[in-house]
């Protein structure tokens, strides 16, 4: 007997009420759906706009059960849900995507590095230190790869937090001891000579279909991404294809369902090394909201619902995304007035604000600029930086006076 298709609208729930959930909700609306979110409070970005909100904690099993009740898929806007809680949900029949077995590779940098090593995937040389009695291994590692070293907290770091550049071996030992004292293992890597950072964003469905967006260049300042250029300028076609194929292979090997962002180092000799990855929509993919046929947020929903994946081609030769970061001092000019002045000068700016209170260095929005000619990239980047600075500070960095 032929199965009768269900007339029920699919329901996706997302753990986390941040800007990624907010923008996923925007994509859900276009698909005739309503995203349910688990938010810590009613003033979080997604909770402000979603009609189906569960207030609770991602570390509380009962709150996770409440948000997961009756949904077709449970997914994430961050990776901080304890693995053991997700495994309990899976045992109770919840469709957790990506699965706990996949997600742990984005939660724990040591687990990730060991799996990459087993897969013979390119990455910086590393050592894991999980207890004080293994500090001697750090000395041997430093003797083998040299200094300086990069010391990372194995769990919990983001936006530059939990990542420190060690000046020498003594400094590396000090940072490692600090992490261990907090109960967090340390990942120590060689510091590679890099020319820039790249990101390969892909998506994978339960059916096994994969899709890859153009590889982008990310520009970091103080450990925080400030700008993304799509596609990465002057990246050879074979290197771009290599990065896409690597990300798709990892998605398949790890069993990822949804969006996977693979952050890469391009070294001075042209090699590509894996830095980290995220199994959710990612800051390096915000350009897709305006510059691609299918945004990363729509694609993530398509993937977790096992829909056919969307076209990932860029719709213009170049897109530049600039993050809007909270200024050291909140401007006297209200954000709405800043937006008014921004549009008056740069009417082609595609602004996405998150509804977040402004704090120094906090991501409160992003702006996309679409370019019709890759030759105009320098000007496009300057305009994106100018726009982001104005929205952050309420002052034009070039001294422009609208009344002059």
Topology:
Blueprint: E1 12-15, H1 19-30, E2 36-39, E3 52-55, H2 61-68, E4 73-76, H3 83-91, H4 100-107, H5 109-118, E5 126-129, H6 135-145, E6 149-153, E7 163-166, H7 169-181, E8 186-190, E9 194-204, E10 210-212, E11 216-221, E12 224-230, H8 237-254, E13 258-267, E14 272-278, H9 288-291, H10 296-304, E15 318-325, H11 335-345, E16 350-353, E17 363-371, H12 377-393
Parallel strand pairs: 1-2, 1-4, 2-3
Antiparallel strand pairs: 5-8, 6-7, 6-8, 9-10, 9-11, 9-13, 11-12, 12-15, 13-14, 15-17, 16-17
Helix pairs in contact: 1-10, 3-4, 4-5, 6-7
Largest sheet: 9 strands, antiparallel
Low-confidence stretches: none
Reported by name, the CATH topology of the largest domain is D-amino Acid Aminotransferase, Chain A, domain 1
CATH-derived architecture of the largest domain = 2-Layer Sandwich
Number of separate domains: 3
CATH superfamily of the largest domain: ATP-grasp fold, B domain
Query: How much helix is in the residues?
Result: 25-40%
What is the rounded distance between the termini? 75 Å
- Overall residue-averaged pLDDT value: 94
Number of helices: 12
Enzyme class: ligase
Organism: Mycobacterium asiaticum
Pathway: Purine metabolism; IMP biosynthesis via de novo pathway; 5-amino-1-(5-phospho-D-ribosyl)imidazole-4-carboxylate from 5-amino-1-(5-phospho-D-ribosyl)imidazole (N5-CAIR route): step 1/2
Keywords: ATP-binding, Ligase, Nucleotide-binding, Purine biosynthesis
């Amino acid at each position: 007997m032929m199965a009768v298709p269900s007339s029920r609208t699919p329901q996706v729930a997302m753990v986390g009420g941040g800007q990624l959930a907010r923008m996923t909700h925007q994509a859900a609306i276009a698909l005739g759906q309503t995203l349910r979110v688990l938010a810590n409070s009613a003033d979080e970005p997604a909770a402000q706009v979603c009609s189906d909100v569960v207030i609770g904690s991602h570390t509380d099993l009962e709150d996770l059960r409440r948000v997961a009740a009756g949904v077709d898929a449970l997914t994430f806007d961050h990776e901080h849900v304890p693995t053991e809680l997700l495994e309990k949900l899976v045992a109770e029949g919840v469709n957790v995507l990506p699965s706990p077995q996949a997600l742990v590779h984005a939660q724990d940098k040591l687990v990730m590095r060991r799996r990459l090593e087993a897969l013979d995937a390119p990455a910086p040389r590393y050592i894991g230190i999980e207890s004080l009695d293994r500090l001697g291994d750090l000395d041997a590692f430093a003797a083998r790869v040299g200094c300086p070293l990069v010391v990372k907290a194995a769990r919990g770091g983001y936006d530059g937090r939990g990542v420190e550049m060690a000046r020498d071996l003594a400094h590396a030992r000090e940072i490692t001891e600090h992490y261990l004292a907090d109960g967090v293992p340390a990942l120590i890597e060689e510091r590679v000579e890099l020319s820039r950072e790249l990101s390969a964003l892909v998506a994978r469905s339960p059916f096994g279909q994969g899709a890859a967006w153009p590889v982008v260049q990310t520009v970091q300042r103080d450990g925080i991404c400030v700008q993304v250029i799509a596609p990465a300028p002057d990246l050879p076609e074979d290197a771009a294809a290599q990065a896409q194929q690597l990300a798709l292979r990892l998605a398949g090997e790890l069993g990822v369902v949804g969006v996977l962002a693979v952050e890469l180092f391009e070294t001075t000799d042209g090699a590509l090394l894996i830095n980290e990855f995220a199994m959710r929509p990612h800051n390096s993919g915000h350009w897709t909201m305006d510059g691609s046929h299918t945004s990363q947020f729509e694609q993530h929903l398509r993937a977790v619902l096992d829909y056919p994946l969307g076209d990932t081609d860029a719709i213009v030769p170049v897109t530049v995304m600039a993050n809007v970061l909270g200024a050291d001092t909140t401007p006297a000019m209200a954000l709405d007035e800043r937006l008014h002045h921004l549009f008056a000068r740069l009417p082609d700016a595609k602004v996405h604000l998150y509804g977040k209170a402004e704090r120094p260095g906090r991501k409160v929005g992003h702006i996309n600029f679409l370019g019709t000619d890759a030759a105009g990239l320098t000007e496009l980047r300057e305009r994106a930086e100018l726009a982001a600075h104005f929205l952050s500070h309420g002052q034009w960095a070039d001294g422009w006076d609208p009344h002059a």
